[in-house]
């Protein structure tokens, strides 16, 4: 059973979906720790409720990004994770952190990457008048929101959508489904990062998988 560390900064709905998928066997793994850079992240309570170890490390207590990441690496390594899952973790990572977990670190992003990296993706989709929106799970590399894509799913933007309705539909209809799926593949050893390419069950992916 794979040892999974989850990094959060907030509500933890993706974390909750991962907790449930581990509990019901969809993911052959268990969450060994949940680390938050914010003490008030609601996701911490979700972890504590089911007896998962939590770690809080405030970036404000460190004088540089490097010092913060060095401390995070040490905390995470003490739980010997096989997989590091970013679930709404809102800090930019240093190259040293990414190197420490290279090929073992996933992120979910609320857009159809490579479209709309960064923050406020729902606003960006509406402002651009785009017809399609969605979410993407990708390997984390040094490029911000730019690592190789694993799985992506989309929805059609409605004329009456606003930021709230889009965020809600992307979360419940897409994120909470594709992240447990990607982590399940990862836990079974079915996903591999080979340079800039993703191998799924040994085959190089030409593009992200669908759901
Ligand atoms: C999710 O929508 C996730 O995709 C996004 O933050 C939200 C976290 O919600 N992540 C990013 O924007 C990463 N830059 P959650 O804490 O309820 O899972």
From TrEMBL:
Pathway(s) this gene product operates in, as recorded in its UniProt entry: Purine metabolism; IMP biosynthesis via de novo pathway; N(2)-formyl-N(1)-(5-phospho-D-ribosyl)glycinamide from N(1)-(5-phospho-D-ribosyl)glycinamide (10-formyl THF route): step 1/1
Binding positions ((6R)-10-formyltetrahydrofolate): 65, 90-93, 107
Enzyme Commission code(s) on record: 2.1.2.2
Active site: 109 (proton donor)
Swiss-Prot/TrEMBL site (Raises pKa of active site His) positions: 145
The protein's enzyme class: transferase
Keywords: Purine biosynthesis, Transferase
CC annotations in GO: cytosol
Pfam short name (any one): Formyl_trans_N
Annotated SUPFAM superfamilies: Formyltransferase
Reactions the enzyme catalyzes: N(1)-(5-phospho-beta-D-ribosyl)glycinamide + (6R)-10-formyltetrahydrofolate = N(2)-formyl-N(1)-(5-phospho-beta-D-ribosyl)glycinamide + (6S)-5,6,7,8-tetrahydrofolate + H(+)
Formyl transferase N-terminal domain residues: 3-183
Origin: domain of life: Bacteria
A GO MF label: phosphoribosylglycinamide formyltransferase activity
GO biological process: 'de novo' IMP biosynthetic process
PROSITE patterns: GART
Role played: Catalyzes the transfer of a formyl group from 10-formyltetrahydrofolate to 5-phospho-ribosyl-glycinamide (GAR), producing 5-phospho-ribosyl-N-formylglycinamide (FGAR) and tetrahydrofolate.
UniProt cross-references to PANTHER family, sorted A to Z: PHOSPHORIBOSYLGLYCINAMIDE FORMYLTRANSFERASE
NCBIfam families the UniProt entry points to: PurN
Protein name according to UniProt: Phosphoribosylglycinamide formyltransferase
Source species: Solimonas marina
Gene: purN
């Amino acid at each position: 059973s794979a040892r999974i560390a989850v990094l959060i900064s907030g509500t933890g709905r993706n974390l909750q979906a991962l907790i449930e998928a581990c509990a019901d066997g969809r993911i052959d793994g268990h969450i060994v720790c949940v680390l938050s850079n914010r003490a008030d992240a609601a996701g911490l309570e979700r972890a504590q409720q089911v007896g998962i170890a939590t770690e809080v490390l405030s970036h404000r207590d460190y004088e540089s990004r490097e010092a913060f990441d060095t401390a995070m690496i040490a905390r995470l390594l003490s739980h010997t994770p096989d997989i590091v899952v970013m679930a709404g973790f809102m800090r930019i990572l240093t190259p040293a952190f990414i190197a420490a977990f290279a090929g073992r670190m996933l992120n979910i992003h609320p857009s159809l990457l490579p479209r709309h990296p960064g923050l406020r993706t729902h606003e960006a989709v509406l402002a651009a008048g785009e017809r399609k929106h969605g979410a993407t799970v990708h390997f984390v590399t040094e490029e911000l929101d730019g690592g190789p894509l694993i799985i992506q799913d989309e929805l059609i933007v409605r004329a009456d959508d606003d930021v709230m309705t889009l965020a809600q539909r992307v979360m419940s209809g897409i994120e909470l489904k594709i992240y447990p799926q990607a982590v399940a593949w990862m836990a079974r050893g079915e996903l591999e990062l080979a340079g800039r390419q993703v191998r799924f069950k040994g085959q190089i992916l030409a593009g992200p998988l669908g759901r």
